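User: I've been trying to design a sequence by hand for this structure and keep getting stuck. Would you show me what you'd pick, starting by listing the structure so we're on the same page?

Assistant: Good idea, let's start from the same input. This is the structure you sent:
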């Protein structure tokens, strides 16, 4: 058996060259480098529609501009997110900030001061509640509303642009760029709280989550091939993964996603979806048997800035609407 030697990483000022070199090393450094290589393959594949799953508190942790850049440069074509990330994204657009705190702290004292903690990130509960009310008022302004979460988030993005044109958010950027955002567990977030507030005030609002499932599956069925990228796991991961199963049930056996990347800190041996391997997913028909795939067991707040910076420094750019789902 002929073996290929590892190659020591040489320090470099260019992040794209660094990750490419890391793909020839070992351990999770190699996985991060391989993830960069596969993402580049997706971008360069003119037949590939790229879907991004986002879980975890990415926006509070400071990943918002990275996500915005991925959308602005069309390194992704569709997003499935937790409702929490979209809520925090809306907060930032409206000028509500998240603050550097500490994980060694008296949480009872924070509660008394009205401060919420997300590990080592702080935020003011009163400010969050002000955004809850603004979103509830927005929902009232478009009532009666009945449709998918994708349609609601699109209108939210348009409202953000109109309300604060100078603001920046992933939600507004995707509305502007025509990139759909699905939130299949919308009720499990502060946006869900806003909908309860609106409904109790007499507003007619109904989110059709089955429409979400159908809409994203039709995007996958329409695509010549699909690539998937998961930041964390959870509902966003399974929601994208199951499109291949739904398509096969409806006589559209697509053969599984053609490319797959995941950044996660969950391990497969606990049996949970967030840590399950793409090899396991092959048994369900969710990934193609021969698809380039890699799971990097790494904190996403480390991986995403490096990946985004590398893709930008590589000069990669996709045209708006080139693979519009």
């Amino acid at each position: 058996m002929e073996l290929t030697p590892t190659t020591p990483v040489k320090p470099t000022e260019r992040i794209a060259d660094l990750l490419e070199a890391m793909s020839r090393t070992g351990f999770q450094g190699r996985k991060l480098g391989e993830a960069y290589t596969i993402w580049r393959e997706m971008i360069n594949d003119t037949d590939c529609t790229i879907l991004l799953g986002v879980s975890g508190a990415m926006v509070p942790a400071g990943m918002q501009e990275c996500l915005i850049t991925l959308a602005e440069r069309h390194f992704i074509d569709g997003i499935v997110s937790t409702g929490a990330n979209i809520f925090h994204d809306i907060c930032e657009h409206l000028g509500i900030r998240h603050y550097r705190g500490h994980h060694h702290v008296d949480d009872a004292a924070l509660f008394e001061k009205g401060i919420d903690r997300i590990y080592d990130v702080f935020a003011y509960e009163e400010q969050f509640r002000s955004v809850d009310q603004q979103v509830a008022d927005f929902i009232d302004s478009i009532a009666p509303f009945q449709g998918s979460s994708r349609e609601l988030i699109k209108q939210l993005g348009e409202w953000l642009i109109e309300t604060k044109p100078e603001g920046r958010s992933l939600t507004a950027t995707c509305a502007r760029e025509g990139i759909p955002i699905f939130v299949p567990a919308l009720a499990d977030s502060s946006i869900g709280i806003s909908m309860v507030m609106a409904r109790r005030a007499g507003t007619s609002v109904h989110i059709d989550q089955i429409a979400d499932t159908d809409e994203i599956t039709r995007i996958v069925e329409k695509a010549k091939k699909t690539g998937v990228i998961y930041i964390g796991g959870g509902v966003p991961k399974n929601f994208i993964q199951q499109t291949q199963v739904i398509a096969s049930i409806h006589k559209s056996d697509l053969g599984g996603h053609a490319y797959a990347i995941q950044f996660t800190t969950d391990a497969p041996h606990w049996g949970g979806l967030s840590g399950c391997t793409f090899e396991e997913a092959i048994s369900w028909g969710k990934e193609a048997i021969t698809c380039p795939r890699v799971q990097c067991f790494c904190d996403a707040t480390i991986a995403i800035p490096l990946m985004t910076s590398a893709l930008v420094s590589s000069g990669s750019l996709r045209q708006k609407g080139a693979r519009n789902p």
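That's my pick for every position. To get oriented when you compare it with your attempt: The chain has one domain: 15-313. The chain has a mean pLDDT of 96.
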